């Protein structure tokens, strides 16, 4: 009996450890599903329209060849043969170890030949039958693989149910074989209890074979399952944790208990003498085998949890390209798919934030995505920097449109770079001009200092750019004060901007800066609010700005007074 128990679970675990998908094919299919689910859930982006669409399977023949190779293993021939071989070995070993219920007997050899021949014939016939039926079912189910297309909902469910169906057919054949074997034993004249014991042994072996075939098929077909779960419509749970735990209990608990309970059945008096030792060995073997089987059945669960933990850590660190392979037909698979959906949503939100931020500024995008976007605004202190390209009409006449656009893009790139370094943002581009804001929507109390630093840095960058484009000339105006910052427009179309006197003043200062050799003018109010930056600015003139009744005290950067900064002609240029 002890030999039987050890042999049973040793064969089971050896076969289970061999149930590994082919690494080369798996890697190819995994690469395929990475391409199929670049967005994390099987949704890909149309390069033409940018619209989300459903699953589009790769036209790469190498990918489909790999899928076909895996699907061939998923059809079940090797799994069925191996599972039935393990079952036959278990039955043979247990019948030999149990012994016959009487000693000797002239018909011993005849019975062995009859029973062994009948068992071998039935085993071969049952294996061939299950293999034929399983492959026919698989050929029908896996039509989508041959046709290289997305599976339908019915094909998804059928593909996921294939291991369960094959395991059920195997157990059914073993159950019928148990009835047939008990009948043959009875016909040969053996005691009824012994015949029942033989039938029970065959049923338990069939249960082990069915469970083993399920595990073999599931593990070998995981790359195919990845394609199933790559579809936009997620399939339902086919074999969840509840059934897996019950299967683990049956194999690791119920089977050893039944063996212990039926050990004395059909034994002679002489055979019962060594029964206590056999029971102890069976119990020990059951404990060890139970731990091993439970470990084998929970290994995939632990691996999945580890994958999720690693992926979660990567997402927490900001990596939104992570994707967990979905290769389980139970709740764990749906959990993985849900995690991928979540990451896809986060990635989509991040892409929206990046795209939105490029249009309106990252700070405004953050406020809008936080749900604070509504019509109206609030009074606040702000600083405004206005930039305008001088002589853009002349440039448009002298340069091709493409060259003019490239020139403006370089100018605005310098604007965005200098403004961003000082925590400002570009509110809008208006042709050859740009309106930049410091302060709102965040509460930046040092916005006056920041805008003056940005103006000086921008002037230096634009002068360097002018050495590459001799016809380039840019004016800068800076002002600070009270504005209303908020969303202006209608309920279905609005934009975030700032409105107030500082905006108008900055625009008028930019007009006057076109006549100033330094090309930069700042209002007195901005200098007053920026004590740390004031040392780099000097008074220029008191100007009467267009549209304003009061005169404005203006300032220019100190360095701009140096002759080295006068890279342009002192003759003012009109726009």
Describe it.
This protein has 575 residues and is α+β, with helices and mostly antiparallel strands. It has two domains: 2-236, no CATH class; 375-565, 2-Layer Sandwich (Alpha-Beta Plaits), CATH 3.30.70. It is built from 19 helices and ten strands. The strands form two sheets. Strands 3, 4, 5, 6, 7, 8, 9 and 10 form an eight-stranded mixed β-sheet that branches. Strands 1-2 form a two-stranded antiparallel ribbon. A hairpin with an 8-residue loop joins strand 9 and strand 10 (552-557). It is rod-shaped and about 125 Å long.
Task: Give a short summary of the structure.
Belongs to the adenylyl cyclase class-3 family. It contains 19 helices and ten strands. With 575 residues, the protein is of the alpha+beta class.
Describe the protein's topology.
Layout: H1 2-17, H2 23-36, E1 44-45, E2 52-53, H3 61-74, H4 77-98, H5 108-141, H6 143-147, H7 153-187, H8 192-220, H9 222-229, H10 241-262, H11 269-272, H12 275-316, H13 331-360, H14 362-372, E3 376-389, H15 392-398, H16 401-421, E4 425-430, E5 433-438, H17 447-468, E6 474-490, E7 493-499, H18 501-513, E8 520-523, H19 524-528, E9 537-543, E10 552-557
Parallel strand pairs: 6-8
Antiparallel strand pairs: 1-2, 3-5, 3-6, 4-5, 6-7, 8-10, 9-10
Helix pairs in contact: 1-4, 1-8, 1-12, 2-3, 2-9, 4-5, 4-8, 5-7, 7-8, 8-10, 10-12, 12-13, 13-14, 16-17
